[in-house]
Amino acid sequence: MQEARYKMQDKECRISDAFYLASCLLLLTFSFFLLDTIFHFFSPSPLNAAEDNPLTPFNKGEFASARKKMVERDLKGRDIIDPKVLEIMGKVERHRFVDKHFQSVAYADHPLPIDEGQTISQPYIVALMTQVLKLKSGDKILEIGTGSGYQAAVLSEITPNIYTIEIRKKLADKAESRLKELGYGNVKVKAADGYFGWEEHAPFDAIIVTCAANHIPPPLTKQLKEGGRLVIPLGSTTYYQTLTLITKIKGELDVQHISGVAFVPMVGEAEKGR
Ligand code: SAH
Question: Which of 122, 267, 269, 271 to mutate to test the pocket of ligand 1 (most atoms within 8 A of CB)?
């Protein structure tokens, strides 16, 4: 009887040991899981981005290969066929035009925030707008909406005569110094309302408007050369617009619809009275 009780106690003892061990293992697993979650939550975004995005914090060569992939996948893979445009998009360093926190995703095909609540356009749209303008070296081009300066840099790889207007002084100043620093000092930047164009340097072979308006600013069509092209996101400035290509033929405006787009609004004079 006494012996039986001892055996029983011994078994109970072994059962509680096993239970204790299992609890420890469970606790350990849970702690690992918790630490892992905390680590991922607080680690800087490029590390997080690396998991579902092949773009990790880069060195120069890695930026170049991400850019190459972007050209293949998002531009050639769609309808960008102009070899010059493809070459330039593979050359201009978009990551230099965004805040360092966004550099790891600079070659993903979407817009990114810049200062003052504005955006740098997605690479595909930059390439598309450049392509439809059918630019030649020596052309004189006016851009409305300098933003980061990226589109201006792309244009200046085709022709040195680039004029760009930005209504937000802080953005204009930042873009101007960035463009100089990156070797695009030929781009002339002005802080003003682009609605009125840049009379002093008119007429232009091409005008590119990179903010949305619900009508074409008349001063811009006036400052366009005969045969010149103007591209503008036209429509609702709060929702979507139609990327519209205007060609001036014998003083008349030929209108062509290109694609649906969503741009930040043109502010200033464009908002009045319409
Ligand atoms: N092309 C830019 C992106 C443009 S975002 C790039 O490559 O980064 C649109 C820009 O248009 C914003 O910076 C905004 O401030 C500017 N903008 C809005 N209304 C304007 C106006 N009336 N004249 C000039 N710029 C204007």
Answer: 267
Least confident of 44-53, 112-121, 138-147: 44-53
Residue among 109, 104, 112, 103 nearest 80 (CA): 109
Q: How far is the CA of 87 from the centre of ligand 1 (A)?
A: 25
Residue 218, preceding bond cis, omega within 30 degrees?
A: no
Mean pLDDT of the chain: 86
For residue 274, the model assigns a pLDDT of 61
User: 171: Cβ below 6 Å to ligand 1?
Assistant: yes
CB atoms near residue 55 (< 10 Å): 21
Q: Which two tokens stand for residue 142?
A: 């006016």
pTM above 0.85, yes or no: no
Tell me what pLDDT residue 30 has.
56
**From the candidates 16, 104, 121, 137, which is the catalytic residue?**
121
Q: Which domains does the chain have, with CATH numbers?
A: 109-273 (3.40.50.150)
pLDDT given for residue 59 in this prediction: 85
Ligand 1: atom nearest CA of 150 is 7
Annotation marks residue 121 as catalytic: yes
Task: Report CA(236)–ligand 1 centroid distance (Å).
Answer: 16
**Percentage with pLDDT > 90 across the chain:** 76
Which of 246, 248, 261 shows the shortest CA–CA distance to 124?
A: 261
Tokens at 95, concatenated: 């990551």
